[in-house]
Amino acid sequence: MGLIVQKFGGTSVADIDCIRNVAKRVANTYDQKNNVVVILSAMAGTTDNLIEMANKVTPAPNKRELDVLLATGEQTTAALLSIMLQSMKYPALSMLGYQAEVVTDHTFGNARILEIGANRIKDMIKKRKIVVVAGFQGCDTQGNITTLGRGGSDTSAVAIAAAIKADICEIYTDVDGIYTADPNICKKARKIKEISYDEMLNMASLGAKVLQIRSVGFAKKYRIPLHVRSSFNEEEGTMVVDEDSGMEQLVVSAVTHNKDEARITLKKVPDQPGVAAKIFTPISESGILVDMIIQNTRAGGQTDLTFTVPKADFVKALEVEKKVAGEIGAQDVFGDKNIAKVSVIGVGMKNHSGVASIMFHTLAKENINIIMISTSEIRISCIIEEKYTELAVRVLHTAFGLDKD
Ligand code: ADP
Ligand code: ASP
Ligand code: MG
Questions:
Q1: What is the pTM assigned to this prediction?
Q2: Distance from the alpha carbon of residue 208 to the mean position of ligand 3, in angstroms
Q3: Residues in the chain with pLDDT < 70?
Q4: CATH number of residue 259's parent domain
Q5: How far, in Å, CA of 101 to CA of 310, rounded?
Q6: Which one of 299, 305, 306, 398 is least enclosed by Cβ atoms within 10 Å?
């Protein structure tokens, strides 16, 4: 008898028929003498709709109240699946984040899990119940409802799997595994049979949203094997595991994209010690995460400085920098939301030269202008105009020999 955590994403619970499909899969696993804990997302589109509704009231809704609102999406699907399973005569029971003892910090909208008690889940498993947990939500130490950031049900699932020492955590989604690029935009992408936690961490951090990055961190820390697979067919998906997958020999093993960033430029900034600190301290104090930074020196003791922030924080970051620009005497501040980041990733890049030049040539051939570049030992990222994202992913995938036959 195994202990299996099954997580179903938004498209897998998009309507009652989908929820029935999920119930059958869960029941089947239970019938095979396994104990099953299910973690659910909200129905596809629900979280976006709830955010939109709150934004109709005010462009900057109170973050605590927004989390109370967003948590209803997962509450709905957890209750519906439990009702569905009970109607099929299975002993199901739904739990919200606080009932599953998912304790988080106080960062509304992007809370971090501090610990998971899971005592009630463990008790229920002993009684052979099927526990259905609302993903994405937790509760801070003062009893406030919190949410774990977009895509956070993945993290709920892996963290609960760790807390109850599950044998495996299955992530059911709308694609049948992890691919060398997003299969929805690159038809020639290849399915990866097995990938290491570290490789998946790189992919997730550079935009492969098939798994929320924190979920991979948890899986690695607690050695939870993940199986990413489709809820619409029986095919084997991708295993995310500890061992090396053999992908290390590849110079480039995946191409990712991220449309969630925006850029901000400060023009003619005085080139003096301490200026960068003045620019970035208020940004970090506002809780905004900066990704890429580029500084160009001009003649006359001035520089231009460009950096990227999450699109959701664009308006706030621009506001903050307009104030800073006045204080430090920068000439102008402007921004652009219509950008995307494309990255090529590969551990094998460490020992190879020429990857950057292939990437730049490939983009140039398509007349795609590179706005910013950043590199590390194992990846190269370019910021380009958002409208070229799909094209860039496809041509890079081909250029680095990743296309399937
Ligand atoms: P869920 O609602 O099930 O959590 P998500 O939309 O969060 O689903 O994640 C699945 C999506 O991730 C896929 O539909 C796909 O478009 C996208 N994706 C991006 N990069 C990859 C990749 N390398 N492999 C597989 N899917 C990817
Ligand atoms: N419903 C949340 C979201 O859309 C969490 C999740 O689906 O994982 O981001
Ligand atoms: Mg997701």
A1: 0.94
A2: 10
A3: 244-249
A4: 3.30.2130.10
A5: 30
A6: 299
